[in-house]
Amino acid sequence: MNEREFHQSLIGAHAFFKDLGIARPMVAPRSLPVNPSFNKFALDTELPYGDVYFAGLRLGQFNFQLSDFSYFQFSFATSDDVRYAFYPAPFGAKAQARLDLLHQLLLRGDIDEEAYHTFAEEVPLNYGRPLLRYEYNVGQYKLGLHPASHLHIGTFGDDRWAFQRQLTPRAFALIIGKLYFRPHWEAVTVNGEDDSRENEFDRILLEERRQCVITPQHMFSEEEHAFFFS
Q1: pLDDT tens readout for residues 161-203
Q2: Closest listed residue to residue 198, CA positions, set 208, 188, 207, 183
Q3: DSSP letters spanning the chain
Q4: Which of 57, 151, 173, 221 matches a 20 to 30 Å C-alpha distance to 24?
């Protein structure tokens, strides 16, 4: 995947959530640059997730948000070094309603950005969905220790779930949509009389999977027999 393909896939990731009806406008249709201020929070595994989430929100460190204030980050350094992240909004239904109101006040100009973030950080947190980060980094590959293509789940940071394929931004977004926004995904499901099931988004995910390049075997052979499940 080259840089042009990366940006096209990023736009496709946003378009998918627009199709689900839950995407806010695109903020950065390009690779996010490194932000040292945000990284101080994101790389500190001792910090509560809420601190990291709000740091990204305050600093505008995202490509786009969803209607529930979750947000995505997509970064491209080279074809051998990409990073995607999904920062889920840590709020329950009542807190979500309060945030929606705060956002409307912000859009109308009744409160400023600083007041909005101050009030938002006082909203009770509810940790349901985990932080998810995907990385493909050839330079950091270490046989049996650090897979080139891998996923982090949560804030632990030293867990690396090996992926055989190199995910595109759109593939990453589709997986998030299928697993964590199930009611929207299932809205297009058609169930047949013979217990068959057809879902347009499942078809799109399958097509996108075929576009994801397979990691070279010399950087996957150890992971394949050691801790990869297919």
Answers
A1: 999 999 999 999 999 999 999 999 998 888 877 777 889 999 9
A2: 188
A3: --HHHHHHHHHHHHHHHHHHT-BPPPS--SPPPP-HHHHHHHT-TTS-HHHHHHHHHHTT--SEEBTTS-EEEEEEEETTEEEEEEE-----HHHHHHHHHHHHHHHHTSS-HHHHHHHHTTSPP---SPPEEEEEESTT-BTTTB-SEEEEESS-SS--EE-SB---HHHHHHHHHHHH-HHHHHTTEEE-TTS-EEEHHHHHHHHHHHHSPBPPGGGTHHHHHHT---
A4: 151
Mean pLDDT of the chain: 88
Q: Is residue 103 part of a domain?
A: no
Question: Which residues, in sequence order, are bridge partners of residue 83?
Answer: 75, 135
Q: Is residue 107 part of a domain?
A: no
Residue 185 resides in a domain: yes
Domain that holds residue 160: 3-90+127-226
If one counts the domains in the chain, the total is: 1
Is 100 a domain residue? Answer: no
Amino acid letter, 55: A
